[in-house]
Design a protein that fits this description.
The complex is a heterotetramer of chains A (about 220), B (about 110), C (about 375) and D (about 775). Helices cover about 60% and strands about 0% of the residues of chain A. Chain A is built from nine helices and no strands. Chain A is globular and about 55 Å long. By secondary structure, chain C is mainly α. Chain D is about 70% helix and about 5% strand. Classes of the chains: A mainly alpha (about 220), B mainly alpha (about 110), C mainly alpha (about 375), D mainly alpha (about 775). The interface between A and B is large, with 103 and 86 residues.
Chain lengths: ~220, ~110, ~375, ~775
Amino acid sequence: MGVNFHSVFFHLMAVLASGFALAVVFSNNIVRMAFYLVASLGAVAGLFFLAGADFVAALQLMIYVGGTLVLLIFGVMLTARGPFADLKTSPAQWTVVGLVGGSLLAVLLYAASSASRWTASGKAASAPPDQVAPTSAPLGLALLGARVDKLDPKQNSASSRAGGMSGYLLPFEIVSVHLVVVLIGAAYLARARRRATPRPIAANSPPDDPSQSSSVS
Amino acid sequence: MNPLAEPVHLTHYLVVGAVLFVCGVTCMAAKRNAIGVLMGIELVLNGANLNFVAFGSPYLQSTSPASIGLDGQLMALFVIVLAAAEAAMALAIALCFYNAHATIDVDQADELKR
Amino acid sequence: MADFFANWLPNWLALTLAALVHVTLILTLALTAAAAFTWAERKVAGRIQDRLGPTRVGGRFGWLQAVADGLKLVSKEDVVPKNADPLLFRAAPYVSFCASFCVYLAMPFANGWVAQPLDIAVFFILAVAGLEVLGVILGGYASGSKWSLFGAMREAAQVVSYEVPLALCAVIPVMVAGTMDLVAIGNMQSGWAWNWLIFHDPFLFATFFVYFTCAVASVNRAPFDLAEAESELVAGFLTEYSGFRWSVFFMAEYASMFAVSMLASILFLGGWNGPLPITVWLGLAPNPATGDAPHALLAYLGNFLGMVNLLTKATLGVLVMMWARWTLPRLRIDQVMTMCLKYCIPLAAAMFVGAMVYAYAFPAGLIFRVGGGG
Amino acid sequence: MDLELLLPLLLGLAWLVPLGSFAAIVFFGPRMGRAGRGAGYLAIGAIGASAVLSIVALIAWLLAHPLGGDHGSHHAVHAVAGDWYPLAVFGDLKITIGYYIDGLTVAMFAMVSVVALCIHVYSLGYMHEELHEVTDPLVTLSDGQPLKRRGRFHRFFQYLSLFSFSMLGLVIAGNVAMVFVFWELVGICSYLLIGFYIERKSASNAANKAFIVNRVGDFGMIVGMMALWSGLGTFSFDEIFARVRPAANGHALVVPDGMVRAAASERIAAIYRTTPTGPGGAFPGLQNAAEARIAALLPGWRAEGLGYGLLLVAGLGIFCGCVGKSAQFPLHVWLPDAMEGPTPVSALIHAATMVAAGVYLVGRFYPVFTPEALLVIAIVGCVTLLIAATIALTATDIKRVLAYSTVSQLGYMMLALGVGGWVAGLFHLFTHAFFKALLFLGSGSVIHATGTNEMPRMGGLLKKMPWTAGTMLVGCLAISGAGIPLVIGLSGYYSKDGILAQLYSFAGRNPSHAWLFYAAAAGAALTAFYMFRLWFMTFLGLPRDEHVHAHAHESPRVMVVPLVILAVFAVVAGWNVPGTALGLQPLLEQARPLGTAEGASHGHFLPTLAMPAEHLSHAHEIHVPVTLIAFTVGLAGFLLASAMYWWRLLDADLIGRTFWPLYEFLRNKWWFDELYQFLFVRPVLRCAALAAAIDRAVIDGAAHALAAAVRLFSRFDDWIDRLFVDGAVNATANVTYEVGLRLREVQTGQLRQYVLWVAAGTVGLFVLAMFLWTYTLAG
């Protein structure tokens, strides 16, 4: 058989995601990091598409890339005064981090490679259709507490999910309320505080000495 | 053999997820910039999400009992939402920290030690 | 189309060809649209300002003006400022362009004429359209100039806030239709003009205008073009850009303008279904009464007419945007924010609730029947 | 509406309204109107509402039980008795908030609330100066300045409201316990109001005196209550009466079984001992057998008089309380001093209502009294009336004169009750309430005008204050029983004649006690004498003190109007509504307790003693002579008084000097205060001093020694504590601190190190898992 486009796009996206992730790790400029992170997350969204989770993918694009990243960039810009370059990590720390990270990666890779052993015989759908199965409606129903994909009573009995327990209505509610609370809290934390002393202007006052910049009312 | 020809297996996804995860952890551990740490966290969460989606993917393990069906995607949804919340919170904290210390070097955030 | 090629080609090559064809079509559309709109913008501006606009280049309508502009831009020197971040400075325009271009992946041009049919097309389009701002921000920051930074920040604030009412307004027809698949939504509105979703109920009618306002803002056209406020910030995030990269930004802007108005015409204005069911009369579309499908070739012709219809509506939307740009003064940033947070979002929410109640009270709509909610 | 429901509702409301105004004034008094003026209006409104309700209740009662005949003894009218709220139940003892309503209760309600209403209105004018800053000339501070204090207008009316509530509660009370509670409440009010000018030493002393003297009586009352309960096992009036005068026995007085058993406890124990019973009892029912024998023996025991003493003790105990409350002979000393209070208080509490409560209680408990108890009551009343009347002859303080006359009139009432004149005594109680309140208010208005209590400094006030003089003249005539003999007279004429008639028939029945009648007649003469002495000295003759006379003036209308109203009552209170039998006397006749109509006799200890039935005293051969006698002695007293103080034929001082021992004796009030000082106060004080000395010397010494020992030990203990306990504790703390410091080194507040540790830990766990649970991964 010829080239499996599913595999081709998977490898492409995987390489993009991993590469940009590494770029995030090894770059020092915070804005570039943000850019790489966007790219990496976008690639992950592509992987979601390939895994048939198009809703999650779109959500990933919207929330992460469209929302979280803009938030990050806000953070970058708002704290953009002051040097970023000198926030270098010492080579010694790099080595320690590298060691730990490497060992962790090794362990995880071992676990991943063992997946074929603890999942069913590793045969996958050889030729995935070019039209992804609709998932938004089932997801929405599941969030409202009805599992259309677990309607099979046999599977219900097999997998020990009680009828009412498989829905996600309550977690959905909890997450929504949690989100609201968190956003309010964030707005409160990040609100503009009035400085006890007016900002130093021009040369006649010492430019931005920490006491003044740190004196918040 | 040609990697592009053989079908994608769950392991592939897990490997990518592991790479993202480790990158995130490394980022958290190595970056002294609070925002960098935050980005690391996002990476970690994405690695986890990738695993969730892969476990529930209809193309990879749909037939085997190991498949968790839609639950994977639902988990991913929740993780994404919580990640957004966490990012907002963390940024707010970073801003406060910056207002107080005029820097966002996380190594400076050890008053509780002293 | 892939299987059409697959008749005499290996599978992978067929898929590649099909993809290439799609991409070429969409790219051509985007580029020509951009070119046409630059010319149209000038003409509209001229007429509105009681001028003639371009008259020289080619014919007495200066219809080659766009080509001349393109040549000028391409031939210009590409300057990268000294204290700019070269990588991001270079990458930013392409990010923007990719974003606004990817929108067309899920955008149907006629019944079934869509590059990648998605059942979450609306969601996808909104998400991807939101990515365009990223390029703008990157570019503005990477230029290393305070004007650019100001522009970028304004853009970020504005677009991120306007995504909320935009999504809300887009959700309302989706709720009424019961699906996020644009093709399905478009097919629901076949027939007379009162089958369009905008005439489904008063709330949707009001929603359309809120949506259009938010769309104008989210593609930061005047009167919301705070990011490139040439009278305050020299050119906003475009200050340091010139030549080809500038034109890429430019094309991205026009592409996204076109995208949002296309989305509007599909969600509200019946998409490829005209005010009169001409295609049904000519037998070019499946007959709603009998439901028998026309011959493939006739169907193709009907789809083509539908595409022309849709593009006309989208172009009209863009022209309205231009008209607004040259008519209305620019808002202040705080006014922009007030507009979004104090008017658009509450309006959209109210319309959402109202439409929900209405759809619950009259499941079939007032005068037109949503086809069983998709 | 059914009377059973209507009366408790009306009277209960009439009873509770003043409580409401009291509470309101307590909380918001000072903020009511300007300087608390509103408090007065509130209190007046409350007592007015009670008066209206009471009168409505009276009318309802009269409609339900029309008054027929001149004495309602033969048609029995049952009282409306019941409970509002049960407070507590201890075994068979029920403490409840109950009501016992009969004609007497209704009449008392009307009288009390009307008189109280008049006096409230009067106080509005009398207490006027309390509205602003008051300087009390009678109190000099240490710096010699007179006392300046804030006005207590609202407080005065707050006390008045509390008193009205307590008095009405005392009247409506349905059981002895409740009576006792309100008994004490009126005592408290009297205490508070006597000590209203608390800064005056005399006032506070008088208040304490009144309270303590009342305690003596109340002790006796508690004894009586205990006797009643031990014998009858109940407190409520109707049960008590039902057991003491069972209807089966024609409502004749019998010693209740409980008292007999209590007295014969030894014999009962013996019966139980002799009757075979106990754990080895052959067959059940022997218990009942014993009871049966006891029941068989009971009449015999009763005939022997067992338990009679207990009944006597009960009656006398209750009477002790009455003695204290209505200032009878041994305990009469507090009432004259109580005049330290404001005059309206004297009128309301110490003339009209509270002191009459004792008489009322005797009347209420009448069925329980044995002939012996009645005789004691009569003797006490007689002695009281003589002593008080004689003291009143020489008193010069106008209010004291009135106070002693009050005591003697109360003595009259007791005397009447004691000799079986139930109606006569209570009738006198009502009439006396009206005219004595009138007299007190008149004296109050005189004092208000002249600013002094001393009669020798008054005189010739008739022109200055005609209204007061006129109304007081009416009062004097009423109290001395003036009237055209056998035709018509003021209220006092009827009541006093009733008393004397009953005494006369009593004296005729058992001559050994005839002296009671003579004493009463002499008392009547004395009454007339001292009352008119008061009036002449106050209003006639030449002004003796120009200064006083100069700024004397008639009182404001708000004070005069109540005087007039009370004067009208004092005139007509004794009359029946012309043509009908509607009147106070018939009402009381109807309210007479069952079984007391035929008089009392056959006492166990004094078998010969016999209280004649009261209606016998209405016979002509008794009635006519007594009326003439009473009129003559009253006239004699009046003539003597006018000869001495009006026409000045006789010189009072000369007489005083001639009979100086007697005069001194009377002036010093028979040296009662000195006697009590000598008999009780001094010994008590000495005992107290002795006890204090012992306390200081012995007990404190012991305590100090103990304290020293404890201090010594504690110093030792302290040493141990510091050395060992604290040492241990501090050592622990130090160790913990050191360890904490060491461990602190691990916590480098470096975020990234924590991340590293987490990651390393994860790796470690993974490795462990792989080595330990390989099968899970390799499975």
